[in-house]
Amino acid sequence: MSTALAAAAPAVSGPHLAFVSRSAHFEIIANVDPHISLRMLNYFAQRDLVPSMFRSRRIREKLEMRVVVPRLSEHDAAVIAEKMRGQFAVAAVTLEMVVGG
Predict the structure, then answer these.
(1) N or C: which end of the chain has fewer CB within 10 A?
(2) What is the pLDDT of residue 1?
């Protein structure tokens, strides 16, 4: 009986993937500035979003930041990443959408 149920279960593909949980992973490289971390986090605060993870480390005169935000649409994540790139101290922003992460 379990074999029949397994065969009858629909495969998850195509448009069904829209319902799978996604997380936006931002990698930010910026010049060392005492306010840059707060500026980056403010983009999420403006949208009432709380990142599930924020990490920052200084390597010489650069600051590497990683921010993970669950359930953020790809469009909204791209808009935020583009705004981050517009900050004067930001050297690079990489965005990765992770399914199930």
Answers:
(1) N
(2) 41
Which value, in Å, is the radius of gyration of the alpha carbons in the chain? 18
CB 82 within 8 A of CB 24: no
Three-point CA angle 72, 73, 77, nearest 5°? 75
| Per-residue confidence (pLDDT) for residue 19, from 0 to 100 | 56
Whole-angstrom distance, CA of residue 10 vs CA of residue 7: 8
Name the E strands within the chain: 22-31, 53-59, 62-70, 90-99
Instruction: Using the structure block, give the residue that is written with the tokens 């953020």.
Output: 72
Helices (H) and strands (E) in the chain, counts: 3, 4
Q: Other CB atoms closer than 10 Å to residue 83's CB: what's the count? A: 16
* Residues in the chain where the model's pLDDT stays below 70: 1-20, 101
